[in-house]
Amino acid sequence: MRKMRHDWPNTSNIMVDFAEGEGLVISLDLKGVAVSTGSACSSGSLEPSHVLTAIGKTPDEAHGSLRFSLNSTNTAEEVDYVVEVLASDRRTSFANYLRTTSGPDMAYAAKLIDYLRNPRCVGEIENADAVAQVSNPVCGDVMKLWLKVDAGTITDAKFKAQGCSAAIATSSYATEMIIGIEN
What we know:
Blueprint lengths: L10 E5 L5 H10 L19 H5 L4 H5 L1 E5 L6 H13 L5 H7 L4 H13 L12 E6 L6 E9 L2 E10 L2 H14 L5
Antiparallel strand pairs: 1-2, 3-4, 4-5
């Protein structure tokens, strides 16, 4: 068993393109790997890490981050296992799928990338007429939706989401699509 060096920093932040940290945390937890998306004082928040945004990371980059904390009892084999698990996770390989997609699927991939990189309707509506939250306990995706309704027509919609990149992109797309729908 190889031991970790004691002079290494004990906390590392790894950012995963096109992935949501909370979904990765759940996936890794199911495989015996304990990580977080940020410090304990920010647990439960839907907001991106203020530390990561302060050092110039975008909210999308901050939401795709994982925080690994090591100590003197961790082994190199454990680190190797985490790398192996990350490499096999469908969310961490999502960017590779999008980069290699061609043919009829490319239009879908391009739209998904656009809504992921440029999400629309993100935020909350103060004094919303309706608020709903949906989640998938299996993968960890969560979406909260705020609606403003006037005379039976949805006049505004905002969302916040945690989960894989597809969940975020489709939440953005769906929220934009429902504006203008009449009862």
